[in-house]
Amino acid sequence: MLAIEDLKRSLGHFVLEIPKLVVDKGETFVLLGPTGAGKSSFLELLAGFDQPDQGRILVNGCDVSSLPPDQRQISILFQEAHLFPHLDIRENIQYGANDSIFFDQLVDLLGLQQLLSKRGEVLSGGERQLVALARALMVRPRILLLDEPFSSIDPENRKTVIEAFRRVHSQLQITSLAVTHNFEEGLYLGHRLGILMEGKLVQTGTPQEVFFRPATPEIARFLGAENLFAGRFESTSDFPHTSDDLEAKTQWEEGYFSALFRTDSATLHVLADHEGPGYALVQPQDITLSLEPIRSSALNKFRGKIENVTLRGSIVQVEINAGLVFKVFITPQSLRDMKLDKGSKVYLTFKASSVKTY
């Protein structure tokens, strides 16, 4: 287990400040944040390459804050593999420890059997990173840090390396903290995510919680959230939701009230916790798209015209002008079944309780 307590480090233009963070045994915690947010500086503090101004770093309950890197039982995997050019792959992996049984286990898990007699310069980027991962794990660290370890690998090999990491992690139950700017990797790797902005850990949670319910408009923008609108909240008097809308009832009990969210071009029904200026976020997956009006208890119902249709991997993004311009995700099959194209008239439906308000 990795625990952070009241950690502070002045970085010149801001202070890296992590009051509390616990990464449980066997968990992978992924740290996301814009360039310059302090992500790599945080890893350097954990690894012992830099010292905090205050606070503690604990590994399995032991304070390692003042220990040198080689005594912390923490390994780090960097963006580049940095293999020793004068050693073959077997010697690279065994550089930190010589345990033949564990060596064989790692080689088997990572599929490195055919590479052991080779040298690093003849390997692909993905193969080099797998060797670097094996070397980092060979010393049996309590904590594994990953600093953008997959970003320099070509897309074809990146998936193979990530799958290998997941396989090793599942087998060995290594406690890991990874830094990445790749949202897809964060969703795929992390049991939990953290968002770091200007040295502050501004949100943590499961990948679904962080991506689908970002805590602030700034986080929503950083994560590339669609359908984030600026406007004003105005309270309405009644609780206009059906008894089976459990999310709405929960929000109501937490101090939210029924409100209208007015923009220059449209009005949404929402649940808000304040009146006046603010933001509303409607996730594309929370919007139902149809060719005709549908019977629904949802209060937000709009008619609009498709302005653009874009294939995004296995989903289709449909951009619809309904006063506000909404982006909606559907499957390619739904696109074909509804015969949608630019200029098509469609209907949008979504619940007031599904709108995230700020």
Commentary on this structure:
- With 358 residues, the chain is an alpha+beta fold.
- It has two domains: 2-221, Rossmann fold, CATH 3.40.50; 228-357, OB fold (Dihydrolipoamide Acetyltransferase, E2P) (Beta Barrel).
- It has ten helices and 20 strands.
- The chain has helices at 39-47, 89-93, 100-110, 125-138, 155-172, 183-189, 207-212, 217-222, 246-253, 332-338, and strands at 2-10, 15-23, 28-32, 54-59, 62-63, 74-77, 143-147, 175-179, 192-197, 200-205, 228-235, 257-262, 267-272, 276-281, 288-290, 300-312, 315-322, 324-330, 345-350, 356-357.
- The strands form four sheets. The chain has a six-stranded mixed β-sheet with strand order 6-7-8-3-9-10, sandwiched between helices. The chain has a five-stranded antiparallel β-sheet with strand order 13-12-11-14-20.
- The longest helix has 18 residues, at 155-172.
- The chain is globular, with a radius of gyration of 25 Å.
